Amino acid sequence: MIVGNGLLANAFRRFYEEAEDVVVYASGVSNSREMRGEEFLRERRLLEQFVDRPALLLYFSTCSINDEELAGTPYVTHKKAMEELVRGSPRFAIFRLPQVVGRTRNPNTLTNYLYGKVSTGEPFEAWTQARRNLIDVDDVACIVRKLLQDGGGEGRITEIASPFYTSIPELVRVFEAVLGRGACYTRREAGGSYPIDTSIAVAVAAACGVRFDSTYVRRVIEKYYGSDAS
What we know:
Elements: E1 2-3, H1 7-16, E2 22-25, H2 37-47, E3 56-62, H3 74-86, E4 92-97, E5 99-101, H4 110-120, E6 124-127, E7 131-132, E8 134-136, H5 137-149, E9 157-159, E10 166-167, H6 168-179, E11 185-188, H7 199-207, H8 216-225
Parallel strand pairs: 1-2, 2-3, 3-4, 4-9, 5-8, 6-11
Antiparallel strand pairs: 7-10
């Protein structure tokens, strides 16, 4: 069963749409800057409908829980609370994700934001010390499925991410190369990063054909934002 209709839901649909013993909960708050309490309450009330079922409940959280600077934000506080709620389910698997890239109209994603700025030439500010971890949504789905097939992931929290981090200026340069145009931005000495344990994701990725290497981010951006993207 798939709960949701967004980026993650669509990626997992081919694997679990007809599954009766797995519930893929992919209908959570997607904007990390969300401040409205009613949005967090909506997710809790919907999630509560699935925590007591005997099926395996898959929940997607955020790697930004590791970011000390975001510890007290409404979004991270909410995600921690949802993880605790899910841990009360008879069967569960929680996956913390970084910046997930795919085909979505959600304007709140980092890559959609940068694509919009670079493609239109609109000025923006790039934080030079900010480093982000990007992963293809299709790779998330393949890694999670393979992990579960091999008997891993259930009953625990697993971080699914690439072993590579990219600074915002570096990511801007990738977009400039892929789109064939220069960006109009100013640099600000600000930002940071946080640790992510990628050991499990990397091991499983190799087993299911996902290739993490120095060209990974460029390939992902070309896939979803290049001239051949559909």
